[in-house]
Amino acid sequence: MKATRLALSFTTVLAVTLVVVFADPPPGNRIPLLQLANLDNLTRVTEKPIPMQPQVAVLCAMRMPDHSQLLPKQPAAVFQVYVTPAAAALMSASKPVFPVGTLILKQKFSTPDAKIPELYTGMIKQEKGFNPKCGDWEFFTLNGAGTAVTTRGKIESCMKCHENYPESDFLSRNYPITLPTPPAKTL
User: Fold this and answer.
1) Is 36 a member of any domain?
2) Integer Rg of the chain from CA
């Protein structure tokens, strides 16, 4: 009887674990993939590809395996930055506070003329209390096709860098920000 209860308990725990591990992610977890399905829904805030700083690429590669593919291509690796439209104007503010739901996405390429990204990195602003150490941002990486989340959460390697920028809501913005010019209104 005791062995049966133990086996039943183990089976129940295993079943619950499998449901949790393989269940559909909550809606917030799908945001990066949904946004990538159409980058036109985001605002690009870098006019042209920005060269990746080799020291940043090395730091990321040491902690995140999907970044190591960019190292041999240094110093040629570049990135473009996209944000949710409501956050675009805040990108150039001196002390921005981004609203919950803001998505900031870096599309990383091996060379300036590459058409297909090697990977994506990004941040999603979550509810207050999610990650107080780093402005309640959730960090993530996606494969180059934008079809799979490769890492997500309170990624320590991302936080080590971003926690140095509390005055700008934990964004480094060590690159020129170019906001699109709205079309001229016609009368």
Assistant:
1) yes
2) 20
* Residues in Cβ contact with 124 at an 8 Å cutoff, skipping those fewer than 6 apart: 28, 31, 32, 101, 102, 103, 137, 138, 140
Compute the distance between CA of residue 100 and CA of residue 103 in angstroms, rounded to an integer. Answer: 9
Q: Quote the pTM value.
A: 0.74
- Give pLDDT tens digits for 85-118: 999 999 999 899 999 999 999 998 888 888 889 8
How many domains are contained in the chain?
A: 1
Residue 24 token pair: 């559909």
- The structure tokens listed for 183 are 């079309």
In a domain, 109, yes or no: yes
Phi, psi of 25 (to 5 degrees): -70, 155
* Domain-embedded: residue 18: no
162 lies in which domain range? Answer: 27-168
Quick check: is 85 in a domain? yes
Instruction: Give CA–CA dist 130/63, Å, rounded.
Output: 22
Q: What values do phi and psi take at 33, rounded to 5?
A: -70, -40
